[in-house]
Write a structure and sequence with these properties.
Elements lengths: L4 H12 L2 E6 L2 E6 L3 H12 L14 E4 L3 E2 L5 E2 L3 E4 L15 E5 L5 H14 L4 E9 L10 E10 L2
Parallel strand pairs: 7-8
Antiparallel strand pairs: 1-2, 3-6, 4-5, 6-7, 8-9
């Protein structure tokens, strides 16, 4: 499957209109742009990414937040956080497959982030995929105001 020029234009126009479009194996997924809380949590995670000092390959570690990636099957994805083993070429759409991805999971993105994304990223050659979602503490009569950092899931080849 090859993306047409109109599909690529649609992808770019959606971003300008404040909507995230992803094409996964020919299936479109639309989402609103992430909110402040989502991005704050994501930035904290990105700041904690470090190369593995025990890695045999030298431990290159390049992280990118919310960038467009064109995968070998022509899918267009925008992982919340992509981690690359080497620096990708700087172009509109990155073509280097990330070593790992992190997705902040919300109610609206649950199906895509928990069911569709992990097998997709692993099939494309990624080493791991993690999804994180806020979990509520029950100490307060207003649980929506007291979130613990995250509940995590992970998939990987190791």
């Amino acid at each position: 499957m090859t993306l047409s020029q109109s599909e690529l234009a649609q992808y770019e126009e959606a971003d300008e209109d404040g909507v995230r479009l992803e094409m996964v194996s020919g299936q479109p997924f639309w989402e609103f742009q992430p909110n402040y809380d989502h991005q704050r949590r994501l930035l904290n995670i990105a700041k904690s990414v470090r190369p593995d000092p025990k890695a045999e390959t030298g431990g290159g570690c390049f992280e990118a937040i919310d960038v467009g990636i064109r995968f070998p099957d022509d899918s267009l994805r925008r992982p919340d956080l992509s981690i690359f083993g080497r620096e990708p070429e700087r172009r509109e759409l990155i073509t280097l497959v990330p070593e790992a991805v992190v997705e902040i999971v919300s109610q609206r993105s649950r199906q895509k982030d928990l069911v569709i994304s992990p097998p997709f990223y692993l099939e494309m050659g990624g080493e791991g995929c993690a999804g994180l979602r806020p979990v509520y503490r029950r100490r307060s009569p207003f649980p929506e105001r007291r979130k613990s950092p995250f509940q995590a899931w992970a998939h990987g080849s190791a």
